[in-house]
Amino acid sequence: MIPILEKSERKKDLSTGPSERPATLDGPRKSIRPELFKSNAKKAFWAVVVGTTFHLFSFAFLYWMIRYDYDFLLPLGWLLAGTSVTSLFVLGHDCAHASFLKNNKINDALGHFFFLFSFYPYYAWKFSHNAHHAHTNNLLFNEKDVYFDNAWIPFTLKQYSSLRKKTPLRAAIYRYTRYFPPLGSLLHNLIMHAYPGKFIDSHRKKVYLSYVVLLLGLAGISFGLVALTGKWTAILHFLVMPGLVFQFWMSYYTYLHHTSDEIYFYQPSDWNPYKGQILSTYNFLNPKLISYLHFHIDIHTPHHLSTAIPCYHLKEAYSDLLKSDFGKDVKEGKFSLSYLYKQWKSCHVWDEEGNRYLTFSEAHSR
Ligand SMILES: [Zn+2]
Question: According to the 3-state scheme, what is the secondary structure of the chain?
Fold first, then answer.
């Protein structure tokens, strides 16, 4: 286990002050050992073993409850299975970035499989997620396609005020998503991935392929579960409820990675990769067991520094980055309910002039 350095241990003498920060990621990338950018078949295999064993264990637990009518324990089973679906999704995330294994055909095949349990069409998510990486915290926005930072980018005060006047229902839905992030995550999956017209021509065929794989895969798994248990409700207990629990984890990670009162959003003319990927990424460090089971997805800056770094190298890459001159710019915090509450309460609408988040009541009084 490689310990994550405490802030006090980091190199303090950053020679480049805020005004002299680089615009590119070349420097921070060089601070990380080159081998950490490469896939490793043994480590990937071990990650698959951990992820699938965890998921099979959660399914066995659910099966035992259903078989012996321990219905009162089912919520615990859903929670466990939703948590293991998240582990599989993290592996699928690496497959989508082609960082999990060297062979990209195997990456795509595995990615489709890992995404089945969370109900995500693999290629559609891959393309929308790549756009998030290309434009992290850039206020560039386009409702007609998916090619902008579509992961928890807040409405600006101007956008939100106009939404309240023209389509109050959409403004209300936006408020619900900020107060109840799993809803935001669920809607994100639908709005960003269920409309093939939002994808460019060269992506669309693959998006359709992922729909077919998702539908056939889920149909096959559902058939197997019903045959195994003899109950139609197995689909609800093994797939639907864990899939909803997964939306909690999905929103937990994606919201916290780039939503914080400590980070900024930038106008397209002011944005650069260093601001987007280093200054605008937050590492909300989970308790060790959760971090292990979710393959250290809570350590997020190295992933934004380069998507070539697989999840099984995130801890080491983070350690290298923190020791470098750029460590001072890395934002992190350990799991804390008070921090979560603060973000949930205050990060609602982006004030472009004040360069800060506004609460909804502040936005309404403007
Ligand atoms: Zn990613």
Answer: CCCCCCHHHCCCCCCCCHHHCCCCCHHHHHCCCHHHHCCCHHHHHHHHHHHHHHHHHHHHHHHHHHHCCCHHHHHHHHHHHHHHHHHHHHHHHHHHCCCCCCCHHHHHHHHHHHHHCCCCCHHHHHHHHHHHHHCCCECCCCCCCCCCCCCCCCCEHHHHHHHHHHCHHHHHHHHHHHHCHHHHHHHHHHHHHCCHHHCCHHHHHHHHHHHHHHHHHHHHHHHHHHHHHCCCCHHHHHHHHHHHHHHHHHHHHHHHHHCCCCCCCECCCCCCHHHHHHHCCEEEECCHHHHHHCCCCCCCHHHHHCCCCCHHHHHHHHHHHHHCHHHHHCEEEECCHHHHHHHHHHCCEEECCCCEEECHHHHHHC
d(CA 160, ligand 1 centre) in Å: 27
From ligand 1's centre to the CA of 163, what distance in Å?
A: 29
Per-domain boundaries in the chain: 38-365
Write down the pLDDT at residue 15: 37
In this predicted model, what pLDDT tens digit does every residue of 295-349 receive, in sequence order? 999 999 999 999 999 999 999 999 999 999 999 999 999 999 999 999 999 999 9
Q: Is the pTM of this model over 0.85?
A: yes
How high does pLDDT run on average in the chain?
A: 93
CA of 81 to the centre of ligand 1 (A): 23
CA 24 to ligand 1 centroid distance, Å: 18
